[in-house]
Amino acid sequence: MSRDSALVAGKPEVPPIVQGEVISGADALLRCLLLEEVEFIFGYPGGAVLPIYDSIYGSHLQHVLTRHEQGAIHAADGYARATGKPGVVIATSGPGATNLVTGIATAQMDSIPMVVITGNVSQDMIGTDAFQEADITGITLPITKHNFFVRSAEELPRVMKEAFYIATTGRPGPVLVDIPKDVNIALSPFYYPETVSLRGYNPTVRPNKMQVERLIKAISEAEKPVIIAGGGVIASGAEKELLEFAEKTQIPVVCTFMGLGGFPGTHPLAVGWPGMHGNYASNQALMQCDLLIGIGNRFDDRITMGRTKEFAPNAKIVHIDIDPAEIGKNVDTFIPIVGDVKLSLEAALPKAQPAKSKEWIEQIDAWQEEYPFAYQQNGKLKPQAVIEMFYETTNGDAIVTTDVGQHQMWVTQYYKFNQPRSLISSGGLGTMGFGLPAAMGAQLAFPDRTVISVNGDGGFQMNSQELAILSGMNIPVKVVIINNKSLGMVRQWQELFYENRLSEIDLTHSPDFVKLAEAYGVKGLRAETDEEAQQVWAEALAHDGPVVVEFVIDKNENVYPMVASGSTLDEMVMGDEK
Amino acid sequence: MQKHTISVLVNDQPGVLARVANLFGRRGFNIDSISVGNSEEKGLSRMIIVTEGDEKTLEQVTKQLHKLIDVIKVHQLSDAPMVSREIVLMKVDAAPAVRSEITGVIEPFRATIVDVGPSSVIVQSTGDSEKIEALIELLRPYGIRELSRTGVTAMSRGMVPALKLQA
């Protein structure tokens, strides 16, 4: 039975946590979570974490029992992306822990703060290939910011303090804490450290003044400057500073996929987003600029197309990032600025002057006008129109999560993200199955906001079991399936680059999604025409609870524009529309 | 490709060597040799890593190493005067008739015979990698049955500070 009398969040007065009280490792773990102000734990019990779940039973900490560990970790990830606070997951040893791997890698690639707690077999069984034993710290070495194997109940509070600190400071990321069963059972005096001291971990947050001066000088000399704003802007909460900086310097802003919402998408200086399926103006701006200011981005190969020597060939590149290893990793940097994005922009703002960018902005505006994202109506239900409808009906105020594939690109092309943390999507890893559970986490964090989870029919089926949680907890996510009865992005590539040899992309034999939703106790709706789409979407928005809305689209719809793999950004395929 | 010798001061924790080796593996950095042992400070170990690559690769290696939470300091030793040593043990075919010849071969290298068997000897040598290589080539014609090298350990010379790449 839990001795965790301190964890009574529902009561008006929470008894103070007594330092030095002798409690079990499992109780200590929950106290740590309480002290770290964790709101939700997403998880799935099992043999090795029974002591923790016994402590959870005795506490009022909110636990969300997903139907799969992968659902749990994506939900925690969605919560973290929506709030900026670390997501917390618990899974048991062995298969429970390994089911988290995709979610951990997803968080690592997008720099999302997470604390992942796994159980392990007792230490006397470690290394014996015991039942449900897996070396999860070994397995997750390359996909965590750091991980811990806890050897005693005594060290558990310190490890937890360090785990939260590492996950949320510097460049955020997932931290895994593996706790053997005997540590959860063992009794030890509870002491939670107030501070963290890690000799090898001191992220540089304040930028070098000389480099900031060089940036200011470079702006004064530039005629075609561009800012490329990445996820680091959102991670550091630097949206206001970026807006002020761009307006003061009159530098157009391209947001990367992860940076969407970090700068208002409808602002006159917003160019769009670049890369493989980005807009023409953004790609041209990157290729023709003479000064490129990278802010919290990482020059990913979906933007440079891997041809880094030909990327922004005439530009002096400035790179601001809290992670020094990102600077110079993919592209050569003229002015490196290591530091927190918000603090770096704050340092630059007082000296920032308008750039000589009037003609350049006019040129970008002309590109915007000539080559907007566009599609042709052909009498069929167009996914682009559906996404535009989402934007218009929510005034752009929704939190939109996506899965991965064509719909993901249409969402980012046709929904204007004006607020940070309003787009939640797996950018770096491209994780199918992410969208639905991530929406669950985001909606739990913001119960009063409209949360739309846009999925393809492929990705939806990878974690559709989590509809049970939406139903059981009445989490009112609007789950959208853009159904083209195939793996659309794969089909598009096979069509374009594999001589139309459509190998293994047919998803015709999928369940009736409306009936599937109803089987889970979730309202199900379907639209096959524009008129039906308007009608069912209005019904979905009005529904006070979770709803699945299937939009059946033409299976041959492609995402354009496109930069083919191996091409440079200025070699865009504009599709039928242009 | 240029060789670089890097000194990495790390927390003496289980799994730290795996973290470092894993980093090199997954990032596609080559490890020529890696040696680990206690450092001058309790609780810290020093790894000496010899790696190959251009300056850009070296920069990434050091930056990525420094991202590891258990890494305290990263120094590049090979850009400044340094002392580097490794030890080799070689079991060489040595019938009694050729033993004196082998002794003559290894003497200029200040190598020593540390074990004598009925038909073999074990030769031990300490020195920089080039010297070790040279000795191996000289003994190869006699027949090397077993060979074991420690990998390089190294230190910057005198008061010359090692080039500090990451604080």
UniProtKB/TrEMBL annotation, chain A:
What keywords sit in the KW lines?
Answer: Amino-acid biosynthesis, Branched-chain amino acid biosynthesis, FAD, Flavoprotein, Magnesium, Metal-binding, Thiamine pyrophosphate, Transferase
Gene3D superfamilies attached to this UniProt entry: 3.40.50.970, TPP-binding domain (3.40.50.1220)
One Gene Ontology term from the biological process aspect of the record: isoleucine biosynthetic process
Q: What class of enzyme is it?
A: transferase
How the cofactor is bound: the record states:
Binds 1 thiamine pyrophosphate per subunit.
Q: What is one GO cellular-component annotation here?
A: acetolactate synthase complex
Q: Which residues form the Thiamine pyrophosphate enzyme N-terminal TPP-binding domain?
A: 24-137
Pathway field of the UniProt record reads: Amino-acid biosynthesis; L-isoleucine biosynthesis; L-isoleucine from 2-oxobutanoate: step 1/4; Amino-acid biosynthesis; L-valine biosynthesis; L-valine from pyruvate: step 1/4
Catalysed conversion reaction? 2 pyruvate + H(+) = (2S)-2-acetolactate + CO2
Q: What is its EC number?
A: 2.2.1.6
Cofactors that this protein relies on: thiamine diphosphate; Mg(2+)
Among NCBIfam families, the record links this protein to:
acolac_lg (TIGR00118)
- The identity of this protein, by name, is Acetolactate synthase
TrEMBL record, chain B:
- Stretches assigned to the ACT domain: 5-79
Q: Does the keyword Amino-acid biosynthesis apply?
A: yes
Which biological process annotations from GO are given for this protein? isoleucine biosynthetic process; L-valine biosynthetic process
Cross-referenced Gene3D superfamilies: 3.30.70.260, ACT-like. Chain A, domain 2 (3.30.70.1150)
Q: In which pathway does it act?
A: Amino-acid biosynthesis; L-isoleucine biosynthesis; L-isoleucine from 2-oxobutanoate: step 1/4; Amino-acid biosynthesis; L-valine biosynthesis; L-valine from pyruvate: step 1/4
What are its E.C. numbers? 2.2.1.6
Q: Which reaction does it catalyse?
A: 2 pyruvate + H(+) = (2S)-2-acetolactate + CO2
The alphabetized UniProt keywords are:
Amino-acid biosynthesis, Branched-chain amino acid biosynthesis, Transferase
GO CC, any one term: cytosol
What NCBIfam families does UniProt report for this protein, alphabetically? acolac_sm, PRK11895.1
| Cited function | Catalyzes the conversion of 2 pyruvate molecules into acetolactate in the first common step of the biosynthetic pathway of the branched-amino acids such as leucine, isoleucine, and valine.
What protein is this chain from?
Acetolactate synthase small subunit
Q: Supply the source organism for this entry.
A: Ammoniphilus oxalaticus
